[in-house]
Amino acid sequence: MLSAYKKEDFFLLEDVAYDRIHPARIFIFFWGVLGASAVVTAVTSFATSYSIYIQAPHWENIVTINYLLLCIQFLVTVFFSFPKTFYRFQRIQMIFVCLFSLKLSIDFYQFIFLIREDRGLPILIDYGMLLIILGGIVFLLFSIARSIKRVKQGHFRHGGKGLYNFQQSKGYVSLPIIFAASMIGGLVARASFETSFGELTELLFFIVVTVVIQYGIAMAWPEFLLIAYCKFRFPSFIVPEEKVDNKKSIKPNANRKKQLQVNQYPLSYWFFRPLTVFRSRASLVSGEKAPFLAVVIVWLQLTLLIFIVFCGLYIRNAMRGVFEVENVIESMSVYLFMASILSLLLLIIFRVCLFAARKLKTI
Q: Which domain of life does this protein belong to (predicted)?
């Protein structure tokens, strides 16, 4: 289908492969998806085990599949967290990017099905969600066909418009929005005849967020697919490994907008050195100063750690009594917000302490 096209027809995608979907950044995506999958698996497993209202037999199989996929994700994420591996196996890495992003796009629908069954809401909500999921799959296939068509039209050549040209693609963007909004509106209107609208408000929030995630990934996924294809076909799409101790500049390529920054440590270097990030920002260690994105990564790491502690405390207390699924999800949302704020405060305090230490060191 695309074998007749040359590397020049994918020029703009090569810029993306060296920048936004750089191998050193993909491992951050892997850890984020792993965290999301862990939350979904934990809530699903906990709810089906302790809620007296969820009795459908299929949930046992779903929980088993969740655990199996979570283990696979964990092994893959750890494997691709080191520069030696994610530079060497970039083709395989992109395959897992495509697979994990597809899984992420439908993971959170489990929350909707759990809440619906736990609250005893009308079964037509499940049917409506299945239609919306099917619509997202159709939109994904349409997005893939559109991306291939844009390759044939030369939009990825040098000076082309690329994949996302929303000003001239209003129909492509508006069609899924109209479909999803119509389905959600009709679903809520129909379900309100059998239950109160107040009971649907929380569920409506999860429906909107989950649909946005699925349809957003369906819009971006063809780019992942094309880059994976190009990595298998064109050697120039394979990003060369950036040596941490290599401070020599490389000869710039006039045809490429994005240049490799070999004089910077990759993000994976800072990912496993959270204390070094802040020490370098405070000029307490010699060498290169950590970028601000490394600080954000440390904040997310600390947030996840505190969130896990909160969840552990909640599970210990919840096991002593009966609870409802929506209470679990609400508590998880509150705990995640509290963890993000608490981790931010701790990092600010730590930064102030390092600043004071640097001042004392200069006295």
A: Bacteria
**Same domain assignment for residues 286 and 225:** no
List, for residues 65-105, the tens digit of each pLDDT value.
Answer: 999 999 999 999 989 988 888 889 999 999 999 999 999 99
Q: Is residue 296 part of a domain?
A: yes
Structural domain range at position 328: 267-362
What is the CA angle 99-335-271, rounded to 5? 50
Q: Measuring CA to CA, which residue among 294, 297, 231, 271 is closest to residue 96? A: 231
Q: Are 239 and 23 in contact (CB under 8 A)?
A: yes
Contact 30, 257 (CB under 8 A): no
Q: Where are the alpha helices (DSSP H) in the chain?
A: 11-18, 23-50, 58-79, 83-88, 90-107, 109-119, 124-152, 170-191, 197-233, 267-271, 274-281, 292-318, 325-362
129 contact partners, CB below 8 Å, separation of at least 6: 109, 112, 113, 207
- Contact present, 277 and 295 (Cβ < 8 Å): yes
Ramachandran region of residue 195, left (φ > 0), alpha (ψ -120 to 50) or beta? beta
In a domain, 254, yes or no: no
My answer on whether 233 and 272 are in the same domain is no
Backbone φ and ψ for 34, nearest 5 degrees, come out as: -60, -40
